[in-house]
Amino acid sequence: MIDMTLDQILELLENEQTNELRTNLNQMRPEDIGYIINQLPSDDQRIIFSLLEAEMASEVLPDLRDEVRDNILENINQRRLVKIMDEMDSDEATDIAAELDEAQLKDVLEKIDKEDSEEIKELLVYDEDTAGGLMQKEIISVQADLKRDEIIEYIRENYEDVENFHYIFVIDEHEKLLGILEVTNLLLARKERSARELMEKDIISVPVNMDQEQVAHMFRKYDLYILPVVDENNVLLGRITVDDIIDVIDEEASEDAYKMVGLESEDKVFTKPINSVKKRLPWLTLNLFTALLVSSVVGIFEQTIAKLSVLAVLMPIVAGLGGNSGTQTLTVIVRGIALGELTIHNTAKAIIKEVTVGLINGLLIGSAAMLIAYFLKGNLMLGVVLGAAMICNMFIAGLVGSLIPVVLKSLKIDPALASSIIITMLTDIGGFASFLGLATIFLK
């Protein structure tokens, strides 16, 4: 393996040392090449990718950022694309196929290996966010009555089609999944023993239409390396490996993080400005109306603020801390929902816990705020009002921060997508109303 830095590659590229660059690139690790291509200008991305041999290119292409991959696929020679996809596992080839336009896809499927083409067509039927969209068709499966030596011979004949296999799937004559056989146990077994005798019968499998987030939860819960995918009749369709699930976990985590601030996961660092505007503007517009609603609450206490201008200085403290507290609670609850930790049986307990945390934090932070306000402004009652408002808003933050995502989830609405704006609005209203309301009553 050769290690080259971005600067070294750019130097060879600028000096037009194409042959040396091609030789060095094809001796690097695919992951390193993908990382470097992702950092290059669009023209250089295409040049570097064009220097890769088909096998290397097939390993690099899935590691590229979406917009980089789109740039390459839009400009790639069709014959070269066919060679690259022929080298790919079925799941990765299907991901690439899904990004092609109809005419390009039809042409590619006609030219690649017939067996590969059929597998891609089968996988394209499944939603990309399901177990079927994640699985690969390349598996080692054997009939239950095969003896050890027969199984080993079968593996010798077929292992080149399957990468990183540590388990062999055992099926019946109708291709229904019966069990799973670890390669190590196979090698250590006596030659007269059959797959049926050696296999583990207590296996975990997933239905082909299971959501990818649930599949990831299965891997995490049972500490799995591989999962077989079956249809409604328990017929073995393919397998999902842990490296695919790592990508899913990363994707889901990023998606939730984006949604909590009103963004779509497709909005990347180098997304075209106009596309980013289109994705962000609807949520900012909604935020404008919620902000107007909050300001109307403040307007109710306009006379109080006019009499005591110091309130305008302290108002953002109550609303800001309430918003932060609500966001903390929201993050914990949404994460609990995503991981399957929150169920119908323990939701009430989780809400009570978060409300309790909010109250305790409110008491502590409110007490500190009361003392600070007293020392800075010399007004004890002002400090008491500020502290009391802080306690009220922290309570509201704990309540709505835990309740809103649970309610949205029950309504089949993604809690990560809509919760943040609602909670910010409610904590702002709660903070301003409690602070200004108490000030109106006690600070005359």
Describe the structure.
With 444 residues, this protein is mainly alpha-helical. The protein has 3 domains: 6-128, Alpha Horseshoe (MgtE N-terminal fold), CATH 1.25.60; 141-242, CBS-domain (Roll); 273-442, SLC41 divalent cation transporters, integral membrane domain (Tetracycline Repressor, domain 2). It has helices at residues 6-14, 18-25, 30-39, 42-50, 54-60, 66-75, 78-86, 90-97, 102-111, 114-124, 131-134, 148-158, 183-188, 195-198, 212-222, 242-259, 273-300, 302-307, 310-338, 347-377, 380-410, 415-442; strands at residues 141-143, 167-171, 177-182, 206-207, 226-230, 236-241. The protein has a 3-stranded mixed sheet. Strands 4-5-6 form a 3-stranded mixed sheet. Helix 7 (78-86) packs across helix 9 (102-111), helix 8 (90-97) packs across helix 10 and helix 21 (380-410) runs antiparallel to helix 22. The chain is elongated.
Features of the shown structure:
single chain; 444 residues; mainly alpha; MgtE N-terminal fold; CBS-domain; Tetracycline Repressor, domain 2; 3 domains; three-stranded mixed beta sheet; 6 strands; 67% helix
Outline:
By secondary structure, this protein is mainly alpha-helical. It contains 22 helices and six strands. Strand 4 (206-207), helix 15 (212-222) and strand 5 form a beta-alpha-beta unit.
Q: Layout of helices and strands, plus pairs?
A:
Blueprint: H1 6-14, H2 18-25, H3 30-39, H4 42-50, H5 54-60, H6 66-75, H7 78-86, H8 90-97, H9 102-111, H10 114-124, H11 131-134, E1 141-143, H12 148-158, E2 167-171, E3 177-182, H13 183-188, H14 195-198, E4 206-207, H15 212-222, E5 226-230, E6 236-241, H16 242-259, H17 273-300, H18 302-307, H19 310-338, H20 347-377, H21 380-410, H22 415-442
Parallel strand pairs: 1-2, 4-5
Antiparallel strand pairs: 2-3, 5-6
Helix pairs in contact: 3-5, 4-6, 5-7, 7-9, 8-10, 9-10, 15-16, 17-22, 19-21, 19-22, 20-21, 21-22
